[in-house]
């Protein structure tokens, strides 16, 4: 069970997107569209919501779950991302790898469709994203995005060729499909202290984290 839930945490954590101009909080709901049989039994324990706090070049993701809480803090000036996991009382800090270059991967194909809908107060356009995996298999995902949020994108929301910020999008990884939809976009003042890295977390690598919970 721990291995399955940690896999879900790492997949969602890689989906963070950041903005420099917007200061405030964006809250997303998480829906599990498709889960492998071994994960379906634990769906009720998986994260159902996450929020992002933005200020200047800093961003913070907060994601509660049945296991505890996962936080990701990104510094846009240094391009440093720190993942903080408080899992069942154990606290771990992991520095994410931001070094992979886009030109090392196959660029996705973005097809803008003639459909719009309003999400969290923003008019969003619909697009179909076609991704070719390492095995050569095509995968199609749906995105609703708005050009009305100035965004510095990162991770799964950084879809090359998409002219806007996704307020509803899908993630497919390790056999599961999750849909994330913005519930609220709230402009507000955020304290700089929100982005301080706590001192009481044990520094580990991603490989060490997976090994702790039975991964490979």
Q: What is the string of helix and strand elements?
A: HEHEEEEEEEEEEEH
Structural class from helices and strands?
A: mainly beta
User: What is the number of E strands?
Assistant: 12
Radius of gyration, in Å, reads 17 Å
- The portion of residues assigned to helices is 10-25%
Per the CATH scheme, the topology name is outer membrane lipoprotein receptor (LolB), chain A
Please mark out the parts with pLDDT under 50 across 5 or more consecutive residues, or reply none: 1-5
Number of domains: 1
Query: Count of helical segments?
Result: 3
> In the CATH classification, which architecture applies?
Clam
Q: Tell me, what is the CATH class?
A: Mainly Beta
Distance between the termini: 15 Å
Molecular shape: globular
Strands side by side in the biggest sheet: 7-8-9-10-11-1-2-3-4-5-6-12
How is the topology of this model organized?
Blueprint: H1 2-13, E1 24-34, H2 37-40, E2 49-55, E3 58-65, E4 68-75, E5 80-87, E6 90-95, E7 109-119, E8 122-132, E9 138-146, E10 165-173, E11 176-187, E12 202-203, H3 206-212
Parallel strand pairs: 6-12
Antiparallel strand pairs: 1-2, 1-11, 2-3, 3-4, 4-5, 5-6, 7-8, 8-9, 9-10, 10-11
Write up what this structure looks like:
The chain has 216 residues and is mainly beta. The chain has one domain (2-212): outer membrane lipoprotein receptor (LolB), chain A, CATH 2.50.20. It is built from 3 helices and 12 strands, in the order H-E-H-E-E-E-E-E-E-E-E-E-E-E-H. It has helices at residues 2-13, 37-40, 206-212; strands at residues 24-34, 49-55, 58-65, 68-75, 80-87, 90-95, 109-119, 122-132, 138-146, 165-173, 176-187, 202-203. A 12-stranded mixed beta sheet has the order 7-8-9-10-11-1-2-3-4-5-6-12, with helices on one face.
């Amino acid at each position: 069970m721990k291995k399955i839930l940690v896999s879900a945490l790492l997949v969602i954590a890689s989906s963070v997107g950041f903005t420099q101009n917007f200061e405030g909080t964006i809250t997303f709901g998480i829906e599990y569209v498709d889960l492998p049989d071994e994960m379906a039994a634990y769906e009720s324990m998986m994260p159902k919501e996450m929020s992002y706090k933005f200020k200047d070049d800093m961003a913070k993701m907060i994601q509660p779950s049945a296991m505890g809480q996962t936080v990701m803090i990104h510094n846009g000036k240094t391009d440093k991302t720190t993942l903080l996991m408080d899992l069942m009382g154990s606290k771990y800090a992991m520095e994410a790898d931001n070094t992979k270059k886009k030109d090392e991967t196959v660029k996705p194909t973005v097809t803008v469709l003639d459909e719009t809908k309003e999400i969290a107060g923003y008019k969003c356009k619909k697009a179909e994203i076609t991704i070719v995996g390492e095995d050569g298999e095509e995968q199609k995902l749906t995105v609703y995005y708005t050009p009305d949020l100035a965004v510095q994108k990162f991770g799964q929301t950084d879809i090359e060729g998409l002219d806007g910020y996704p307020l509803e999008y899908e993630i497919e990884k390790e056999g599961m499909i999750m849909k994330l939809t913005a519930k609220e976009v709230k402009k507000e003042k955020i304290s700089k202290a929100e982005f301080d890295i706590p001192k009481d977390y044990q520094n580990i690598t991603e490989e060490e984290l997976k090994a702790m919970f039975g991964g490979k």
